[in-house]
Design goal:
By secondary structure, the chain is of the alpha+beta class. The chain has six helices and 19 strands. The strands form four sheets. Strands 4, 12, 13, 14, 15, 16, 17, 18 and 19 form a nine-stranded mixed beta sheet that branches. Strands 7, 8, 9, 10 and 11 form a five-stranded antiparallel beta sheet that branches. The structure holds zinc ion.
């Protein structure tokens, strides 16, 4: 290990992520000696965050031990764990078949936009938290069973090209900008079609098929049609370091792990991937000297323009 990647002494409060329970998103900060603190993010919540650096790994979390901060340095970006912690992360181990547990899993379809249907799985005890973390607008639960059988069905659906296993955030955002009145019917039609084809093809034969209704998650995100993104907004620059920056505004909506924030004196909202905030230490907002680096985004063209220092 080189000196530059060695963990520093853990001090102060550090943002460790935006998390959902069944109904509400929270921004969570962790401290080496104290219980985690959660800032609920309902519509209208005032934000006054000052980010100090250097950005560092958020460490590991499990139900038994809670958060174990790590502090190895990390560059700006959506990745919030160092390679050593990512290797030990239980969720990532499950994703790469390096770990199996005895819980019951649900197989679901998540709808993000026309022809954008994802197949995925989540532990049944997590309820719809996994769907909300991803920003699924509508969803349907297909089946339940042990991890290995559900994983097998998930992969069979992907191999049959009925749904994808991953939808990138940029594609989800593009679809969200175009959400219109017809989306509800389209989502129901798309999800029902994929479910029927999976059943008819025998892809769910080894799991317990469920006959759940399509679930609508748009209200829990505080989303309206047309969406709060249109016609113009700003995005947090994913490559820019945020240390020394402040985030001051009012929550308009939280969609998945994306914060949509009204900025003081600005008609257009800021769309911020909250993963970019993870790993920074928190200080009092008035002391932060810099504005967040953001880019103006025009939905019609998909172009972004450098426009640093909007607030
Ligand atoms: Zn780490």
């Amino acid at each position: 290990m080189t000196p530059s990647t060695a963990p520093a002494r853990v001090t102060g409060w550090r943002i460790t992520g935006l998390f959902w329970d069944e109904h509400e998103p929270c921004l969570v900060a962790s401290h080496p000696d104290r219980a985690d603190r959660s800032l609920p993010l309902p519509r209208g919540q005032e934000l006054r965050l000052a980010l100090t650096g250097p950005r560092a790994c958020v460490g590991l979390w499990d139900q038994r031990q809670g958060r174990r901060l790590c502090e190895r340095p990390l560059p700006a970006g959506t990745n919030s764990q160092c390679p050593a912690c990512a290797e030990q992360d239980r969720g990532k181990q499950l994703a790469r078949d390096a770990y199996v547990d005895e819980r019951t899993y649900l197989l679901y379809l998540a709808w993000f936009g026309p022809e954008l249907v994802k197949v995925g799985m989540t532990a049944a005890e997590r309820g719809r938290a996994r769907l909300l973390e991803q920003g699924a607008l509508w969803s349907v639960t297909l089946a339940q069973g042990p991890l290995t059988a559900v994983r097998e069905a998930e992969r069979a659906i992907r191999r049959a090209a009925l749904a994808t296993e991953q939808v990138r955030l940029t594609r989800k955002l593009t679809a969200l900008e175009r959400l219109d009145e017809a989306a509800r019917d389209q989502a129901g039609d798309d999800l029902s079609r994929v479910r029927e084809r999976a059943l008819q093809s025998g892809l769910l034969d080894r799991v317990q098929v469920l006959s759940d209704q399509v679930q609508d998650h748009t209200a829990v995100f505080s989303l309206t049609v047309p969406t709060p993104l249109a016609p113009f907004h700003h995005r947090l620059d994913p490559a820019a370091p945020l240390e020394g920056a402040r985030l001051v505004g009012q929550v308009r909506a939280v969609w998945g792990r994306v914060l949509i924030v009204d900025l003081p004196g600005r008609p257009e909202p800021l769309v911020a991937d909250a993963r970019l905030l993870s790993g920074y230490r928190l200080g009092p907002a008035p002391t932060a000297p810099h504005a967040l680096p953001t880019r103006a985004h025009t939905p019609d063209t998909g172009e972004t323009h450098d426009q640093i220092g909007l607030f």
